[in-house]
Amino acid sequence: MEEIKINTEYIKLDQFLKYVDIVQSGAEAKYFISENTIKVNGEVVFQRGKKLRSGDKVDINGKEYIIIH
């Protein structure tokens, strides 16, 4: 599990995907979210504006991340 440090209260899912270099743009993030299985704390999510906070676990196609503050 890879730790991802953020300096704000939360990071939105689409911004997170850009931050970890999975996508390059917001439009690409929207498409990626619709075409892939992304889980936050075990629940599948489809909202690109989903707020990720410290302690949240993100699973993207089997690769796991944890948000730390």
From TrEMBL:
Keywords: RNA-binding
PROSITE patterns: S4
GO molecular function, one term: RNA binding
Pfam families, per database record: S4_2
Record has Nucleus as a keyword: no
Database matches in Gene3D superfamilies: RNA-binding S4 domain (3.10.290.10)
The UniProt record lists the keyword RNA-binding: yes
Transmembrane segments: none
Highest taxon in the source lineage: Bacteria
Protein known as: S4 domain-containing protein YaaA
Name of the gene encoding the protein in the UniProt record: yaaA
